[in-house]
Amino acid sequence: MNKSELIKALAEESNIPVEDATTVVNTFFDTMKQSLVAGDRVEVRGFGTFKVKDYEGYQGRNPKTGESVRVEAKRLPVFRPGRALRDYLNT
User: Fold this and answer.
1) Does residue 21 sit in the same domain as residue 7?
2) Which of 33, 62, 77, 80 is the most exposed place for a label (fewest CB within 10 A)?
């Protein structure tokens, strides 16, 4: 499912116009992104938790040439599914 399919499903399920569903979905994702940028974790009960993990830079190697390269430090989003989601998927 992609974002436009999510918007369409929300509009149909809630009997609201697609424009309103688009606003809801965009607001939801924008708020999540703002919280993650601020360093907060986002917990959706029964679904899972999103957080940002900081990775330090390191000396890597180009697999094609074997040349040594510096990999810069980075921040990446991490998702951990909740128990209810895991149980739902494994029933």
Assistant:
1) yes
2) 62
Three-class secondary structure assignment of the chain: CCHHHHHHHHHHHHCCCHHHHHHHHHHHHHHHHHHHHCCCCEEECCCEEEEEEEECCEEEECCCCCCEEEECCEEEEEEEECHHHHHHHCC
Whether 56 and 34 map to the same domain: the answer is no
- Label residue 85 exposed, middle or buried (CB < 10 Å: 0-12, 13-18, 19+): middle
Amino acid at 11: A
The pLDDT value recorded for residue 89 is: 95
Query: Please, what are the averages of pLDDT over each run of 10 residues along the chain (91 residues)?
Result: 97 97 97 96 96 96 95 96 95 88
| Domain identity same for 20 and 57 | no
Q: Domain residues for 36?
A: 1-40
